[in-house]
Amino acid sequence: MRRTQPPIDLRALQAFVAVCETGSMTAAAKQLGVSQSAISQAVSVLERDQGTTLFDRESRPPRPNVAGRALLELAGPLIEHAQMVSTRIGDASHAGTLPVRLGCVDSFAATVGPELIRAVSNSARQISLWSGLTPGLSKQLHDRELDIAVCTQTTLNDARIVEIPLFSEAFVAVVARSHLAGRAQLDWRTLNKELPLIRYTARSVIGQQVERFARHLGIDSPRRYEFDATDPLLSLVAARLGFAISTPLCLWQARHYLGEIAVLPLPSGRLGRRDFFLLHRQGEWDDFASEIVTLTRTVIDRSIQPALARALPQLPEDALR
Predict the structure, then answer these.
(1) Of 83-92, 233-242, 275-284, which gets the smallest average pLDDT?
(2) pLDDT band, very low/low/confident/very high, at 143 (cuts 50, 70, 90)
(3) Which DSSP state fits 259?
(4) Fewer CB atoms inside 10 Å of the end CB: C or N, the chain?
(5) Local structure of 111: helix, strand or coil
């Protein structure tokens, strides 16, 4: 059975070619900027791996033998191809032509996402946009299936991951406008006595955060209705089947319900807010991450926040900041 040859080491191949071109190991070492012993060792390793000598060492200067001439004929295209691959990788990474894989939680993807895509479409940048839940996005970033992630919780505990705070939003109580008809005032305590709490599912980060906050407020409503998304949740709220605890961005995601709902402020505090973070690996996509941070804050300040204030005047001023 014929022995399988190991792959050729490109550095050793460069040393071999340099010896052939210059006529000596000393001159080859000078050409490549290494020591003569490094050239000698590289050639020896190449001969050992290929199981044959490559030079006629009886001649002065050493000249390639039959096997050496065959290798020399093939070496040029191999080295040129390797250099081309290296150049293309470098050009792509420096010019920003590699597609960026961006993952976002659903409420961000549905609200800020379109503006982000619109801005990127006017540049040479390519982008692939994913949406999902924070735990899945965090794992995808850790597994290098994503380059950048926008999440509502940081759970990676990885020093290589940069965490940039994006913005914060307050939890608010959401109720059908018709439930407030004819009432001068209604606060969340009264609302809790009159209606059951419609929840986000506990498998989502927002569901877990709302549950902690509700317990903190003393809201102990029986678990009846739970949803992954804001749309079905607000459909039940609009139908006066219960009230919900949600956030401005989630309400803007399901903004076709804004004419049917009203919001009531909830007590402020650490548990009463949801924070967004942009995550990326240190030293990778730094410039584009900064672009996303700037664009996100611009979209919120100039577009989403004013529109929410018009549609829901009861929204606290610091509900989205």
Answers:
(1) 83-92
(2) confident
(3) G
(4) N
(5) helix
User: Of the given ranges (150-159, 216-225, 242-251, 277-286), which has the lowest mean pLDDT?
Assistant: 150-159
Question: What is the enclosing helix (H) or strand (E) of 132?
Answer: strand 127-132
Q: CB under 8 Å to 232, separation ≥6 — which residues?
A: none
SS3 content of the chain, % helix, strand, coil (to 5): 50, 20, 30
Q: Rg of the Cα trace of the chain?
A: 31
**CATH architecture entry for 98-321:** 3-Layer(aba) Sandwich (3.40)
* DSSP secondary structure letters along 26-63: HHHHHHHTS-HHHHHHHHHHHHHHHTS--EETTSSS-E
At position 16, the amino acid (one-letter code) is F
Distance from C-alpha of 129 to C-alpha of 101, rounded to nearest angstrom: 6
Domain boundaries, the chain: 10-95, 98-321
Calculate the average pLDDT of the chain.
84
Query: Does residue 185 register a pLDDT over 70?
Result: yes
- The CATH architecture to which 10-95 belongs is Orthogonal Bundle (1.10)
Strand pairing of 197-200 and 226-227? parallel
Contact 169, 274 (CB under 8 A): yes
Residue 95's pLDDT band (cuts 50, 70, 90): very low
